[in-house]
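Pipeline run #58 for the internal structure catalog. This entry was flagged by the ingest filter as a single-chain record with no existing model, so it goes straight to prediction. Upstream metadata was stripped on purpose; only the residue string is passed forward. Reviewer on rotation: M.T. Logging verbosity set to normal.
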Amino acid sequence: MDNLLAFSGGVDSSALFFILMDRGIEFDIAIVNYHKREQSIKEVEYAKHLAKKYNKKYPRTYPKAYST
């Protein structure tokens, strides 16, 4: 696969996901969870849901939580 969508789970990357799908452009998705925001868990779950529903690959490893 040559195209990788950097997916955040937000409105912009979600819209781009469906634009690419609508145009028949092949891509996989990647999302990084830095464990900095509580909502990031939901964003990762949403990315997994879309990947499964639309048969997209996505990375299954994420950085471990860290403190600053």
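catalog note: Helices lie at 11-22, 40-53.
catalog note: Strands lie at 4-6, 28-30.
status: ready for reviewer M.T.
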